[in-house]
Amino acid sequence: MNLLIKINPVTRIIALMVLTTPLLLSLDVMSAAIALVATIILAPFAGVTWKMLLKRGWMLFLMAPVAALSMALYGRPDGKEYFSFLLIHVTDNSLALAAAIGLRVLAIGLPVVVLIARIDPTDLGDGLAQLLKLPERFVIGAVAGSRLMTLFREDWYSMSRARRARGIADQGQIKHFFTMAFGLLVLSLRRGSKLATAMEARGFGRTTGRTWARESTVGARDLVLILVCAAISAIALTVSIQTGFFKFLGT
């Protein structure tokens, strides 16, 4: 089930901002936990299974404990002290901040995985230019660049096989990496130059009277998505305030 399949990509970005921005006002466990649980529960309705969520958000699950550990060791000391050494002070307040920051990383990061997953760059470009009225040449160039980024891995493998066939691949790992990176940079610049010339020849440089192959529109589903995200953030902050967990910017 994927209820976001007909949602405009621009709406997804706006909904993401509506959901995550209010959560930055408070550094507490309650609001972060509510937003995180809501994201996990609603993820399958967006076409992202829990297995996919874990696979795509693995970096966040690694970053959260690291952020929490640093906050536990160096957070503002207050309350009962459990351990101290030089600048390290593990107290009730630092542990509470550690739990909050760990959940906050997941509560803000996982919605990105859910809402931005499977966005077509062309659809996003149409929405940015037609709905948000961003500069058309900039949007088209960004879309073309994002399309070419998918070729980087294939280019890397092709260059690696070519160097191995010529017998020049047996070098130190560091030297090999920088040589490959420089070759990939040169190849990207050449391809970008050719693409710019081709796009200019096909009229992509025109600044007036532009037409679009597909019209970017918004509807009732887009409004519902924004309202749902707003409701999640509002409920999270309201419960946090009512239960006394709310800490404005962690103070």
Automatic annotation (TrEMBL):
Membrane topology: Multi-pass membrane protein
InterPro entries noted in UniProt: ABC/ECF_trnsptr_transmembrane, ECF_transporter_component
Extent of the signal sequence: none
Keywords: Cell membrane, Membrane, Transmembrane, Transmembrane helix
Record-linked PANTHER family: SLL0384 PROTEIN (PTHR34857)
Location of this chain's protein in the cell: Membrane
The UniProt record lists the keyword Oxidoreductase: no
Predominant subcellular localization, coarse grouping: membrane
Annotated organism of origin: Corynebacterium glutamicum (Brevibacterium saccharolyticum)
Protein name: ABC transporter
Cellular-component GO terms for this entry: plasma membrane
TM region(s), chain numbering: 31-50, 57-75, 95-117, 223-245
One matching Pfam family: CbiQ
Record has Membrane as a keyword: yes
